Amino acid sequence: MIFGRSERGKPPVEPVTLKILVAGGFGVGKTTLVGAVSEIRPLRTEEVLTEAGRPVDDISGVEGKRTTTVAMDFGRITLREDLVLYLFGTPGQDRFWFLWDELATGALGAVVLADTRRLEECFAAVDYFERRSIPFVVGVNCFEEAARYPTESVRQALDLDPGVPVVLCDARDRESVKEVLIRVVQHAMAHAAAAREAVRT
What we know:
By secondary structure, the chain is of the alpha/beta class. It has 5 helices and 7 strands. Helix 3 (123-131) links the parallel strand 5 (109-114) and strand 6.
């Protein structure tokens, strides 16, 4: 089944489409994550890092990085024949944060991608989604040269609420990223159900 078309003899299925944001600091792997899982060629708005940007782009810890997202990344993945996720990767530098409000409009939830070598880079994203009550999952991108920490240690370091899922992942691996996205959908659904229950009581 592909977007409204179905197997012969079966009625067409109109998929539910959901918007997920992929956020985090500069160089944590957001563009890589979207590209690893997208079933279409991802839309990317990357520009080459230049000497002019050196005073404002802190590349400490990611010295090999040559490009940066200046607007957004966009991809799509079908989790089931009736469930399609649209992925919007946010720019990481603070000078592009004005775009986040536009990207966040209508989002079901978000992935905050974290690098344990530079954990402070994702504080702003965590704060953003907490303030707006947008459900999010923290995905710890397990870089090969980075030390591994238990998820509970990451939770404490980020001062997360107990209900926020923290998962280890590899932003390059499609199956790993799919698991993170499934957790986002599950967490957002549970968050919505809890909100409805609170209204009733």
